[in-house]
Amino acid sequence: MIRFDSVTKTYPKQNRPALRDVSLEIEKGEFVFLVGSSGSGKSTFLRLILREERTDTGMVHVLGKDLARLSNWKVPHMRRQLGTVFQDFRLLPNKTVAENVAFALEVIGKPRGTIRKTVPEVLDLVGLAGKEDRMPGELSGGEQQRVAIARAFVNRPMLLIADEPTGNLDPQTSVGIMRLLDRINRTGTTVVMATHDQNIVDQMRKRVIELEKGRLVRDQSRGVYGYQH
Amino acid sequence: MRAQFVLSEIGVGLRRNLTMTFAVVISVALSLALTGGAMLANKQVDSMKGYWYDKVQVTIYMCNKGDAASTPNCARGAVTDDQKAEILKTLKAQPIVEKVYYESAEQAYKHYQEQFKRSPLASSVTPDQMQENYRVKLKDPTKFAIIASLFNGHPGVQSVSDQREVLKNLFDLLNGMTRVAYVVLAFMLTVAMLLIVNTVRVSAFSRRRETGIMRLVGASSFYIQMPFIMEAAFAGLVGAGLACAMLLGGRYFMVDAGLKLQDKIPLVSFLGWDSVIGVLPLVLLIGVAMPACAAFIALRRYLKV
């Protein structure tokens, strides 16, 4: 699903590489936590998967494709098989919940019939049935993140990337979001989630990948957030 | 491609950016009206040139009694009948000569009086000051030099004049003015382009949230850029429409009504409606293509994959 082979990435005008010689493999259907302090390289890791950045050296394979050899015009098609969720939800404030989700399908040219059918289904799945016509501003943070997850999942991606999806939410709401992500993972979608939330990582007991100053320092199945130093 | 979705996005974009859209429409309209106007002016000058050059002739002035003192070639007095006959024979032998008219001093005087009816020049001239002359119509008016070299210094010839020279100055002036118009319109088109580039950038910036999401969910760059390009093209089309209206209105008010130039200057045959309508498709094409290209260039750097 995802394979990093000795990946190094340095941003222009930076001395220290954001990622240094990282190699790992994530299999189909896995649920992976990506942990590490700010500046450890988590975001770079995710941006490389999304091909928002390219590696300096090393190879990144996503869904069986070598991203270095993927031409620019094919990138959108690759991204259609990926779903992305962010800490700040990134919803369109002037569109309703249903329109926000439908937007993701409209802009990739899906027929209207498909959109009319799948949008209510996915809103039902994330627990927002009955709130289709609300505006994002009227919803709680947890509900907004559910809309964002619905939008990410509506095209049934093989892989869901979540960049601190619970970062703006209280612990109780976060648990709800984690249950939802877990359910999505159980449908066969691979989930990669960057997080700072120790409780969540410790409770879920999934694979944990830890980065520190750009290096891979821990890769543990059924891991916890951090070692007891 | 979902047409309705794209159209609604374009509508939203244009309304959000109303003042800038307005500026784009106006500047496109003005620069295109000037473009069309300059093209028509150019056509007008060309048609006048064709019309007048067809009428003008080379004139061979022959010596009269009075020229003996002032022109060395006429030192032996007025032209003789033999000389006249020889000039006519030589002229007729030239393959480039189409027709030769003879004008006596008497006729020349009459023409002169007619032409300068309202001028004090008319009364100051007497018939014996006028020269007999041959008016020569050439098959190709540009071949004047051949005639000039043949007859300059020929016995009995006072001078050879190309009437084209007189008109040339006028046409040079008109051409110069069209050239100035082209320079001005080049500036105006540049300004319009820059304005469009800027407007599209502002538009793209104000919708970076949408475009960001579009990129994330895998919309193709064509789909992301399309609304912006269409927006610019639409504003350009409205501007081009206005420019067309200005051109049609301009021809109507300058030639037919208002200024009524056709009545005032009957000598000039003004371009017909067909010529004006002929430039409209080009104006519309430029009006749509130029903003679309400007938008595309503006977005290339702005909306990367």
Question: In brief, what are we looking at here?
Answer:
With 229 residues, chain A is an alpha/beta fold.
Which structural traits does this protein have?
heterodimer, A: 229 residues, alpha/beta, Rossmann fold, 2 domains, 6-stranded mixed beta sheet, 4-stranded antiparallel beta sheet, 7 helices, 10 strands, 32% helix, B: 305 residues, 4 strands, 8% strand, elongated, membrane (chain B), ABC3_permease_C (chain B), Cell division protein FtsX (chain B)
Describe the protein's architecture and organization.
The complex is a heterodimer of chains A (229) and B (305). Chain A is α/β, with parallel strands linked by helices. Chain A has helices at 42-49, 75-79, 97-106, 112-125, 141-153, 171-186, 198-204; strands at residues 2-9, 19-26, 31-35, 57-62, 65-66, 82-86, 159-163, 190-194, 207-212, 215-220. A six-stranded mixed beta sheet of chain A has the order 6-7-8-3-9-10, sandwiched between helices. Chain A has a four-stranded antiparallel beta sheet with strand order 2-1-4-5, covered by helices on one side. The longest helix of chain A is centred in the last third of the chain and has 16 residues, at 171-186. Chain A starts with a strand and ends in a 9-residue tail after the last strand. Chain B is α+β, with helices and mostly antiparallel strands and 305 residues long. Chain B folds into two domains: 3-52 and 168-302, no CATH class; 54-164, Alpha-Beta Plaits (2-Layer Sandwich), CATH 3.30.70. Chain B has helices at residues 3-16, 18-55, 67-70, 81-93, 105-115, 121-124, 144-151, 163-206, 208-216, 221-256, 261-264, 273-302, and strands at 58-62, 97-103, 133-138, 157-162. In chain B, helix 2 (18-55) runs antiparallel to helix 8 (163-206). The model of chain B has no long low-confidence stretch (mean pLDDT 82). The chains are: A alpha/beta (229), B alpha+beta (305).
